[in-house]
Design goal:
Blueprint lengths: L6 H21 L2 H17 L10 H22 L7 H5 L6 H15 L3 H12 L4 H8 L3 H19 L11 H12 L1
Helix pairs in contact: 1-2, 1-3, 2-3, 6-8, 7-8
Length: about 180
């Protein structure tokens, strides 16, 4: 099939200059833009069976390119460049049993709360409901729910003997041991 008789290919080629200009404006770098255009064209080519001839191919391919740009940006945001291994050498993982023990302690402390406070705290904190929604569920005022949650949090801190951020995570002795073992 010649280029002239394949409308998808013809229309795709006609859009390339504008597509590249858009990619350069997104990336700010011609090389990255060329790679982005290539990725978008490959995706479009692979999905051409989903494109309806006669519809706006320019809008379709620009959307593919834009989505690919943001997908790559999200992926890049999660990656850490560590070609010389500096970050990897500093990585340390604390033993897993601490988290399990902390969870057991928390569960015991949670069970010591009065039922109305525990219910409010679980609905707001664990289930993610807004105070207004919890008030409707519990058939009481919003202020009552806020008070129950506040008292529950304060009581949990008291039971678990939490005074500040330093009380979260591994204790100082095990943290120092873990760092020493990975530093050597």
């Amino acid at each position: 099939m010649s280029e002239a008789s394949d409308p998808f290919k013809r229309d795709l080629l006609a859009v390339l200059p504008n597509l590249r200009a858009f990619a350069v404006s997104l990336c700010g770098n011609a090389d990255r833009a060329d790679d982005l255009v290539q990725d978008a064209i490959l995706k479009a080519w692979g999905a051409q069976d989903r494109f309806e001839i006669g519809t706006n191919i320019k809008a379709w391919i620009f959307t593919i390119l834009r989505n690919e740009f943001y997908s790559q940006a999200r992926k890049k945001g999660r990656e850490v460049q560590d070609s010389d291994g500096v970050f990897t050498e500093k990585l340390a993982v604390h033993p897993g049993q601490y988290g399990s023990l902390d969870l057991q302690d928390f569960s015991k402390a949670l069970n010591q709360l009065p039922e109305d406070q525990r219910e409010a705290l679980l609905l707001v904190g664990a289930s993610g409901f807004a105070y207004e929604e919890v008030a409707a569920i519990c058939e009481c005022r919003v202020g009552t729910i806020k008070s129950r949650v506040s008292r529950a949090r304060a009581r949990l801190q008291e039971i678990l003997q939490i005074d500040g951020e330093a009380d979260f995570g591994p204790d100082k002795t095990s943290a120092a041991t873990t760092l020493r073992s990975f530093a050597s």
